[in-house]
Design brief:
CATH class of the largest domain in chain A: Alpha Beta
Helix content of chain A: 25-40%
CATH topology of the largest domain in chain A: Rossmann fold
CATH superfamily of the largest domain in chain A: NAD(P)-binding Rossmann-like Domain
Number of helices of chain A: 24
Structural class of chain A: alpha/beta
Oligomer: homodimer
Shape of chain A: flat
Distance between the termini of chain A: 38 Å
Largest sheet of chain A: 7 strands, mixed
Radius of gyration of chain A: 32 Å
Chain lengths: ~700, ~700
């Protein structure tokens, strides 16, 4: 679909200029200079020739077919230019020009108009307000960037044009190869969505990198990303939005959720490797581009210096990489080829006076150990060190099928070696920690690839009942559902709730309690009171009719004293649930990704320790398992100090049902089931209380 | 004291060699080549002249005085060489040669002998097994490293010689200035202790960097480090020891403590800035060396590109730096000098087409805002960008008295600018995150400098009583103190403990309980039973004589059923303490730093969430305050949901008393007070239970 952008047979530059320093000149000059082999048509009514090429007054005066138009003219002329493109049959257009959405008001309107017009003609747009694109395979540099990166397997798309410039400058300076560079600009039409889809199938790209500040269609993005990540690593830096969103939240979930939590969840579920900095992004990319994936987490370290070896071992612990335990066989072989003072265990220390032959023996021996899934070779330039010869050896050893990463430390004396390593596809990191961190990212990705595709379960549910409840609340203009309604909703989706009935007088309460069986719990019922405990609206363990009658009077008088304006429906008398672990599950609508599910242990774990985890609904079982186990207090669910384990299977099903509910009813914008009591294994879960807000 | 090493008037090289490639040649060649202005005496019985200098057969044949000897001969000749040094009156000796402690057995013995001999003569030793040292001020390169760094204000000492080599190579390649480079080697005599003391007063050094794998004398190290850190930043990478120590622990504190926890605590208490990687070490160093300290945490960001600005703002959140809120005045001034589409709030976006003048206006305006404590200037090389001119402006603005940090991104096009910045003392980071992280390290250090010196409190205590208890346990060869003994010990140090008495029969228990007052708690008393609850050895809330008698029988039969071999002293009947927050305070002896105190909330917070903090005893009040507040569950002590706050002052005093106890009695190697109940504010703390192990 995007072939017209990356492999055009002919390019027209609308707004090409003879004047150096102008963007319209940089573009045509880059196209010509970097050897684009197709037809190049400058369009400029005021010139007859630009850079030795015939210039045309407009697109229609060009005789041949045109695959791609690059537009560099002021915004006000662009609507006409799109008309011309359509008449000329051009299907792919890059708008470099700025002055659109980013300037607000008028610019935003114009951008929408341009996008609509293009859509009407079946034209795809990249930009506006972008740097353009570069394809090293087709030798097309349709950008105004200074420089062209070498050919390589890394593709980079970016929502920041300036970041493209800086990275390009870095790539040229360090000779790092790229397949494609795409500046997304304002994303009036093409966004990360189409780019990811295209790059996933691009044979010239083996690693996809992205810089994003936001996504347009969260769910589609996740689907597209997951498909791509199954084919090749997709590494993304997400910037912005660390500060929580502005919407006032009425639930715990709403309070704790935030844009960054949603992105993290979406990335986790889609197999996207999240880089937390630009440095990490490219560090990871170099490992993925040059090396095979490790089949396990066990790393061997080979070094000619103790200190950096220790630093690398520390980094293994920090980034959750295992230090491989070398086999007896390997250690014996190492003893044969290394001096007696060498270190034979991982990290393997070939000692400061090691020449290349010692590295060769160590690297090959270690890589052939089945306990080793990859190796990090550390070199410090010492008196006897054969820096470049060692680089040759490492570059050759890298064909073992296991990933090999280097950390040749220093600057002046290792320049040549780093070149040799790069040519051999071995990434070199100036410090061992960064090598270990990159290896860790490969380990994580390789593990994800082995996981089965998540299956979204489907449970029987009384959808009609929920529709009715929501309709009736809407009729009364209530956005916050009453407690009873919220309980009915989750009951309709298969949650077990305690026996309960509303009582309007203390006498009714006593009757109901006797019917349910003692002891009971009593709670104020009011659409206006969210935090029942705080107004003295809850009593537990009531064991007799007298206690129930007394509690009724206390609860209602507490509530009307503390919240005199609250509408009070009565007091709910409930079955007292036997002891289990109280958890909270909830949902809050995220701006980018829709329903964001939350899970945590109830009470202080959520409120004080904020020990919660998030996933985007709908969510598969495997993701829910991870969601549950990633909170710090997870051991409490599994059971500590000989305690019986909780019914985690039932909890998983509960979250699946919640996921189905909020997916079926996008009008629910926030909800908590709190507490959801997880009983001991085999006994299920019971939802004690719920609250819910609709749109 | 170390002047003989860094400013010698004359140097002898024992083992100087004519042969290139030999260490003895590299040393003399470095001393000559880099222009050491003093006298140079090669010593080599087989040569009459080396590098144009007269060579001597031995030290005694040299006529002039010698301040420093550098020894590069095989280990077996070194004892004689030390004798010669003594005869010649040499007080400072560097032993480069390897073959000592690092080779084990014989080498270790020889090293001790050499060190003892030197000590006897009053000779100070650097090494053995080291790279030597470099002083750019006295133009002395007494090392076998390849290259000499430019002059600068950073001093670096390292326990890894190879790391010195690599860093030196990096410094030469990147033109980074250093005052001194010291390779500590095996630390047979001089260690980080003397180096830190010397460098703290060295006028040519403004930042001290260190790489350490361990310290010899933990407490002295802390004292020396704190004194140095008051004078100039001391930044240290500590490598190794992330895996917990091997000693089997009998207390919670012992289980959770580890070498790395101890180092972290020691660094925190001493004002040492801990770098978690070599990259961070030098990143921080560049900021500290070139820029003044910020007077607060508020950073302004100036950028010509939105993306990197957002990345920097994200990093502020991550590294706990505040984004400065610009004053109305500043924003108005910015509106006057920047185009209307610019960003006037922090991050200030001067827009992609900014030339140097726009940067100049923005940087100066922002720096003069009193709400701003420092600024980060981001530049991406775009078409109109005046890269070097902007660097000039930033370098000049850096004289404002506020720290200024740069992130000029890219490689090829910014090389010249980075040079300009460096000359102006402005550190440049390839990615803005690293700039923000470095600013954060300055903020933290500046805050520490403002803190008062910690005062170690002293409380009245019955020291004699503790001596007696320990003596009696020792007499019986018991290393584990009994519960009663442990309680007596802490009582002697001022801990309030519940009324309690031992009962040997159920009748005695009833009598005691009546005397104490109901309800009571009962606990098995046995030197062999550590986890009382788990053997059914604890009953609480016993409200009558009958209940107490019954409990006595149950507890003793539970204990003898589950631990038939345990010696049972009886059952302790205790006052039931009213509700408070249960915390645990404890101590475990650390290999490097001695008594390491631990604090955490009791039960699952310690056991499951491992939410604990550590400090090295003796510890001042201010450090205890931080120790208490840094656990995640701290809000529970302050009181959540309208709960009364706990008596944190009493808790602080309790930890001070514990600190005094374990400092007075170094023979205590492990102890827990668990639980220590912290009552509501004003009501104090009560120690319920304690355990203690002595040496």
């Amino acid at each position: 679909m995007l072939e017209g952008f990356f492999n055009p047979r002919s390019v027209a530059i609308v707004g090409a200029s003879r004047e150096e320093g102008k963007t319209g000149h940089s573009i045509i000059s880059n196209i010509v200079k970097y050897g684009f082999p197709g037809k190049i048509y400058p369009v400029n009514p005021k010139a007859s020739e630009i850079m030795g090429l015939t210039s045309y007054p407009n697109l229609l005066s060009i005789e041949g077919d045109i695959d791609l138009a690059v537009i560099v003219i002021p915004p006000k002329f662009i609507l006409d230019a799109i008309d011309e493109c359509a008449k000329k049959g051009i299907k792919s257009v890059i708008i470099i020009s700025a002055g659109f959405k980013e300037t607000g008001g008028e610019g935003r309107r114009l951008e929408t108009e341009v996008a609509n017009k293009a859509r009407g003609y079946g034209i795809r747009l990249l930009g506006p307000n972008c740097l353009g694109l570069i394809d090293t395979g087709s030798m097309l540099n349709a950008s105004f960037a200074a420089g062209m990166p070498p050919k390589g397997k890394i593709a980079f798309f970016s929502q920041s044009g300036a970041l493209c410039t800086a990275i390009l400058d870095w790539a040229v300076g360090n000779n790092v190869g790229f397949s494609k560079f795409i500046s997304l600009g304002n994303k009036a039409d093409l966004s990360e969505l189409e780019l990811i889809r295209y790059l996933a199938d691009d044979p010239e790209t083996s690693v996809i990198l992205g810089y994003l500040e936001g996504v347009e269609k969260g769910r589609e993005f996740m689907d597209e990303a997951r498909k791509a990540a199954r084919k090749k690593p997709l590494i993304v830096v997400k910037a912005g939005g660390t500060a929580a969103g502005a919407r006032a939240a009425s639930s715990h979930t709403g309070t704790l959720a935030g844009a960054d939590r949603a992105f993290q969840a979406a990335f986790d579920q889609s197999g996207i490797i999240r880089a937390m900095s630009i440095e990490d992004l490219f560090d990871y990319a170099l490992s993925f581009a040059g090396q095979p994936l490790p089949s396990g987490p066990r790393l061997a370290i080979i070094t000619n210096a103790g200190g950096p070896g220790i630093i690398a071992a520390d980094a293994c612990e920090r980034f959750r990489v295992e230090l491989a335990e070398l086999s007896g066989d390997t250690i014996n072989k190492l003893r044969e080829s290394l001096p007696p003072v060498a270190g034979f265990f991982n990290p393997v220390d070939v000692i400061g006076d090691a020449r290349a032959d010692r590295y060769e023996a160590a690297v090959n021996t270690v890589l052939s150990d089945p306990n080793v899934n990859g190796a990090l070779v550390i070199l410090t330039p010492q008196a006897m060190t054969e820096v470049e010869k060692t680089a040759d050896i490492v570059a050759n050893a890298s064909r073992s099928g296991k990933p090999l990463i280097a950390s040749f430390m220093g600057e002046a004396s290792i320049k040549g070696a780093v070149d040799i390593l790069r040519k051999g596809g071995v990434p070199n990191y100036p410090y061992p920690e960064r090598g270990v961190k990159s290896f860790a990212s490969m380990v994580r990705y390789a593990q994800w690839l082995k996981e089965p595709e998540p299956v979204i379960g489907s449970f029987e549910a009384d959808r009609k009942k929920v529709e009715e409840i929501i309709a009736s609340a809407r009729k009364e203009d209530r956005l916050e559902l009453g407690e009873k309604e919220a309980r009915e909703v989750i009951k309709a989706y298969g949650f077990r709730i305690p026996k309960a009935m509303m009582a309007r007088t203390s006498e009714e309460a006593a009757i109901v309690a006797r019917g349910i069986g003692f002891p009971v719990v009593m709670k104020i019922s009011s659409p206006d009171i969210l935090h029942k405990t705080e107004v003295g609206g809850v009593k537990v363990g009531l064991a007799s009719e007298e206690e129930v009658e007394k509690a009724f009077l206390e609860i209602t008088s507490n509530a009307s004293r503390r919240m005199p304006k609250a509408l009070i429906w009565g007091v709910s008398v409930q079955e007292m649930v036997k002891k289990g672990k109280e958890v909270i599950v909830g949902m809050s609508k995220d701006h980018n990704f829709g329903p964001l599910l939350m899970f945590g242990l109830g009470g202080i774990y959520v409120e004080v320790l904020k020990d919660v985890s998030f996933r985007v609904a709908p969510v598969g079982k495997i993701d829910i398992e991870r969601m549950i186990s990633e909170i710090r207090s997870y051991p409490l669910l599994k059971g500590v100090r000989g305690e019986a384990p909780s019914d985690i299977d039932a909890l998983i099903e509960g979250i699946q049902r919640l996921s189905q509910l909020v997916t079926d009813f996008p009008e629910i914008i926030e909800m908590d089931i709190n507490p959801l009591v997880v009983l001991p294994k085999g006994e299920g879960v019971i939802a004690i209380d719920a609250r819910m807000t609709i749109e």
